[in-house]
Design a protein that fits this description.
There is one protein chain. By secondary structure, the chain is of the alpha/beta class. α3 crosses α7 and α8 crosses α9.
Length: 203
């Protein structure tokens, strides 16, 4: 079993690694404190069974990172960790169909339980997430993982050529996805696209 922990707080990542090693002695556990490093080393992402992502990271938040790398990680399960669930993070997590969402304020035993549930192919969502999702209107708009990744990248100011290079697709593919994004969001340009996506909680 191979686990990747992505968290900019090294103390939390190291403590979680020690805890997991005590529980899963044979597991291979890697940590990453800079999500941008993963984008520059994408060939290394395959082979993980579980990815534990911190949501609140200054360089790139966990859900935006998953937009960009999720498609490269095969059948890996993903558990998002957060200090608190907000309406925006709930919408985005539901849109991405993550396997679990655990509140960092929960006990060590509860976090381990969340990890075991997700690793077993089931789901786990903290009570704060479930309460928030119950009050969140169902998202009618559906975007593909690649379209969500493109949204994140145009928000960061990347050109079509840069997006194509980072996603390993053709320039025409990027242009097609952009056209579909504009149609779905009913907008005419990038600025309006990003504004509408933020309003809908997609970013």
């Amino acid at each position: 079993m191979k686990i990747l922990i992505v968290d900019d707080h090294q103390l939390f990542a190291d403590a979680l690694t020690i805890t997991l090693k005590n529980t899963y002695a044979d597991a291979i556990i890697d940590t990453c404190h800079q999500p941008g490093w993963l984008l520059d080393n994408r060939p290394l992402l395959r082979g993980y069974d579980l990815v534990i992502l911190d949501q609140a990271m200054p360089q790139l938040d966990g859900l935006s990172l998953w937009h960009l790398i999720g498609g490269l990680m095969g059948n890996a399960q993903v558990l998002v960790c957060s200090g608190s669930a907000t309406e925006v993070t709930v919408r985005r997590a539901l849109q991405l169909k993550v396997n679990g969402f655990v509140d960092k304020s929960e006990s060590v035993d509860q976090i381990l339980f969340a990890i075991s549930e997700v690793m077993a192919g089931r789901s786990y969502f903290s009570e704060s997430f479930r309460l928030m999702s119950g009050s969140t209107p169902e998202e009618a708009l559906t975007l593909t993982r690649q379209q969500l990744a493109i949204l994140v990248m145009i928000q960061e100011g990347h050109s079509n050529k840069e997006i194509a290079r980072q996603l390993f697709v053709s320039l025409n593919t990027v242009k097609t996805h952009l056209r579909l994004l504009y149609e779905k969001l009913e907008v005419a340009n990038r600025t309006a696209c990003i504004a509408k996506a933020r309003n809908l909680g997609l970013l």
